[in-house]
Amino acid sequence: ELTVLGKAQEFFQICDLEGKGFVTRQDMQRLHPELPLSLEELEKVFVTLDADGNGSLTPKEFITGFSQFLLEQIALKNDMVQLSEGETACPVRYEETMTGDEDEEFQFSNFMDRLGAAKVLDDETDVKQLWLQLRKEEPHLLSNFEEFLVRIFSQLQEADNEKNELECALKKKIAAYDEEIQHLYEEMEQQIKKEKEQFLLKDSERFQSQSQELERKLLSKEQELEQLVQKQKRLEHQCTQLLSGKEETKVENTKLKLTNQELLRELERTSHELSLAQQQLQVLQEEASRLHEEKEMEVYRVTETLQREKSGLLKQLDFLR
Length: 321
Description:
Pfam family, one: EF-hand_7
GO molecular function, one term: calcium ion binding
Helix content: over 70%
Distance between the termini: 52 Å
Structural class: mainly alpha
Strand content: under 5%
Oligomer: single chain
Number of helices: 9
Largest sheet: none
CATH superfamily of the domain at 1-76: EF-hand
Keywords: Calcium, Coiled coil, Metal-binding
InterPro entries: EF-hand-dom_pair, EF_Hand_1_Ca_BS, EF_hand_dom
Protein name: EFC4B protein
C-alpha cells in the first residue's frame, strides 16, 4: 500500500507538470504512456475520482482515489493470474485454438479500444488495412505507426475536450446575455409604463381643472340669468297690476316701458354671454378630445418604437447565438 501511495504521488506530479496544485481532464491524459489504459479508460477514471463534479482533482482526491484504483487493479490482476494458473491443466488453450487472422483481429481491436478510436473514427477499415500491411510487410515500422496513432488520437481527444469546454462556456455566456437582455427589456417596460401613467395623470389633472373652471363660470352665468328672469317676472307682474288697476300717469307708464326695455337689453346681453360661454365650453371639449386622441397616438408610437427595439434586440440575440 505504501508503494502504491508513492506511485500515486508520482503520477500526480506527472499530471501536474505546471505545479497548479490540481489535475484536469487534459492533465490526466499524460498517464497514457505510463499505464496500460486507453484515453477513454483514463477519462472514466477521472470521472470516477471527480466525485464533486467540479472538473478538477485536488492532490488529496487524486492520491487517495488513484491509490484505491491501483489497489483494485492489482487485486484484479492477481485474480486473473490465479485463474490463468488454474487453467493451465486444460489440454487445449485459447491461444492455441485461435488462428493467425483471429489473433491479428483481436490485437488490432484491443489496440483501437485503448486509443478510444470509437469516439473519433466512424470507419476503421483504412487504419486496419494499413496496420495489417505493416504487420506483415514492415513489422519494424509497426511500433512507429502505433506511436503515431497514439499521438494523433491523444490530440484529437484533447481537441474534443477543448471543444466541449468552449461550447459549455459559450452556452453560459449566451444564458447570461439572455438574462441581461430580459432584465433590460423589463426595465424599459417599467420606465415606459411609469412615464405613460405620469403623462396621463398630468393631462387628466389639467383637463379636470379647466372643466371645473368652465362649469363654475357657466353656473355663475346661469344664476345671473335666473335672477334677471325673476326680476322681469316681477316687473311684468307689476305692469299687469298697473294696467288692470287705475290709470297711471303717462310718466309712470313711460318709465316702466323704459325699465322693461332696459331689462330686455340686459337679458339679451346675458343670453349672448351665456351662448359665448357654451361655445367656449364646446371648443374646450373638442380640444380635450383632440388632445386625448394625440395622447393615444403618442402612446401607440412609443409602444411601436419599443416593439421595434425589442425586435432588434431579439435579432441581435439570434445572431449571437
